[in-house]
Specification:
283 residues, alpha+beta, Methylamine Dehydrogenase, Chain H, 4-stranded antiparallel beta sheet, 5 helices, 16% helix
Length: 283
Amino acid sequence: SLNDSPLLLGDCEYMSEIKEVSLSSEYCAVLCGGQIMLHPIESSNETTLNREPKIFPDEIRGMAESVITCLALTNDFLCFATDLGNIVHFSLERWSTVVQFRHQVGIKALHTDLDGTRLVFIDDHNHGYVYISATEETIRIPEFPKHTIGVLWDYSHPTVFIAFDRTSCVTYTFVRASVEGKKVDKVGTTVLISDQIPLMLYDGDLCLHGSGGRLTTVVLDTHANKPGRDAKEQLAAVVRMRKHNEAWELCNLINDEEEWKQLGRSAIADLNIGFGLFGRDHW
């Protein structure tokens, strides 16, 4: 619980100044001097404890001259990127590299989803992309904030994420299948109070760290059901986030033939044919 005292599990010295640290339940990954040291922490898993530390990029052939710029650690993968545009997925289960990808320019930040199978990366041109490791595809994020300092994936809706700077955050949705192929759509923008840093996103509830160390929670404008908000405006945002079941309830409330048609067209465009045709009874 939050009242428990911290327990020291071990300590370790690293080769140079530490830039970034990421922890999972069994491993620690530390970025320092353009390299990553990956090593196990105290664990009941004997296989984990017996594994020798790994140093990246030395462990990967052809990447010795690369400088690692960022990392992320999930329960399944260590993900990192370099100044030459490499993105690497290292499997913690197999203890080996499973995916390597090369972007055309250097990468300065990456932000994975909960599993590490999808991530958002920011390149040296301040462009944002969604990267899908299973297919090694990248999708450019439209209207990506030039001064983005972070990205959070929604734990409740894994296709929704936000990109934020010091004044606002932009909500996006990743569309896995549509008549246009994979794509990213912008949903809307939420203004942030100064000195607030987003920490976690769950179903549109954004937890922020404020001045004095206080934690606060706000509902994104793209998700908020504010008094006086136009129901059709809310419906449009829900449809853009591909929350078709919620959109169905709103259409029932609005009871407008054109809105039913718009929902049906959106579902069919996303290849959700059955859902789209089911709504024809209301047209």
